[in-house]
Design brief:
This protein is of the alpha/beta class and about 240 residues long. It contains eight helices and eleven strands. A five-stranded parallel beta sheet has the order 2-1-6-5-7, sandwiched between helices. Strands 3-4 form a two-stranded antiparallel ribbon.
Length: about 240
């Protein structure tokens, strides 16, 4: 099992997503576990303040480091952050990563998903407003990731993208092991190819026929595999 812990100020955003389709089934069968944590639960004032004005001026508000630190400290299997050698766990190497979503982060891709799928626990920190106190990136996060060269309102959508991409690499989540073997390359990439289903001939209007390639109907597995490779794209990065 791989455990996903998501820290957000809008936990209800995830409700329908984690309770539908294969993600819901994977949790029920204990292939994955998803916990959503409300950052406001880790504040100490009656207003549950999670943000403040940026030093040096600027528009908008910035998420504070204190509640994020407390949240990760509580849910982290390592029982401590990598702030100093004294706090680092001894012995067995921990298979836990803290991931901060930010537009300045490394581009999330199939290879990164493959590496993360080998972990025991991933803690996602979802930013909001104008960003997150930089000390989270400097002192707490193991990785900073972005899902694209654009800016979003927060890290919730990137967290959902990462959870789905990583989860489908966990054995059992897709149901049939051969589904992964057929698509995943030795380098950790993903082969995406054109696919067709019935009817063999579709007529959108009289005189027009959209046909399935003959090779896919031939029963020649070698030629079919060659066709898939030539009509596909290997997504490495």
């Amino acid at each position: 099992m791989i455990k996903f812990d998501v820290i957000t100020i809008f936990p209800e955003i995830f409700n329908s997503y984690i309770n539908e389709s294969l993600i819901a089934r994977a949790q029920k069968k204990k292939f994955i576990k998803i916990n959503i944590h409300n950052l406001r639960d880790f504040t100490k004032d009656r207003h549950q303040t999670v943000d403040d004005r940026p030093f040096g001026g600027g528009l908008g508000m910035v998420l504070k480091v204190e509640p994020i630190y407390k949240a990760i400290k509580k849910i982290n299997l390592r029982q401590g952050l990598r702030l100093s050698s004294a706090e680092r766990p001894q012995g067995k190497k921990s298979k836990v990563k803290v991931v901060l979503f930010t537009p300045r982060g490394e581009k999330f891709n199939q290879k990164i998903a493959s590496k993360l799928s080998k972990l025991d626990q991933i803690i996602f920190v979802c930013g909001r407003y104008e960003g997150v106190d930089e000390r989270v990136a400097e002192k707490i996060a193991d990785m900073q990731l972005s899902i694209g060269d654009y800016d979003l309102m927060g890290g919730e959508l990137p967290a959902m993208v990462a959870i789905e991409c990583i989860s489908r690499l966990v054995p059992g989540v897709l149901g049939k092991p051969q589904l992964l073997k057929e698509r995943i390359t030795k380098e950790g990439g993903f082969l995406e190819y054109a696919q067709y289903t019935r009817p063999e001939i579709f007529e959108p209007e009289k005189g027009k026929k959209w046909k399935v390639p003959k090779v896919l109907l031939s029963g020649d597995h070698k030629k079919i595999e060659e066709w898939k490779t030539s009509h596909g794209k290997v997504i490495e990065s």
